[in-house]
Fold:
Amino acid sequence: MSSIPSNSRGAGAPLPQSVERVVLTGFMGSGKSTIGRSVAEQLGWRFVDLDSAIELRDGRTVARIFSESGEEAFRALETDVLAASLHERHIVLALGGGALETPVNRILLASAPHTGIVLLTAGFDTLYDRCLQQVAVSTSPLPVRPLLGDRETAAARLARRDATYRESAHVILDTTGQQPPETLNTLLRLLQDIL
Structure:
């Protein structure tokens, strides 16, 4: 029998009594897109990967937006797409790893009614290794994760973001040592009373 990971309440507001959208946040490699797709499928909801929605709106990949227009332009697009997504019902929304660094994004999420925010987290080594595995299978000439950088830079970025992730989340789910099906089952159990 597999063990259930240690889960905890986030530092933010209490989890809403009913949820019409589930937002997954966390650092690169935490499994937001993988788990988000599976949660949406299980619930019969629509899955929205915020980075993919930005690419659809802009017509360029995230890597190309960073390369050609810079991070500031990317963050402005991110806020616009997030605001539009939070008007939808019955969606599972996977945020980019840096979305919560923008104060207006945190305000949008905190003020969105019937929205449950889940932090998917893991130890830094696990997260970094997952990112490297994704980069290894990519065929793109541009970086798959423009802000991955070297190990030390990535660790500093996670350390800087961690408190914001935790303060914004209603629920924190540690995925260290878990395969996606195990994380999916745990998350669905955590959310079953409010869905």
Summary: The first helix runs from residue 32 to 43. The chain is about 50% helix and 15% strand. The chain has a mean pLDDT of 84.
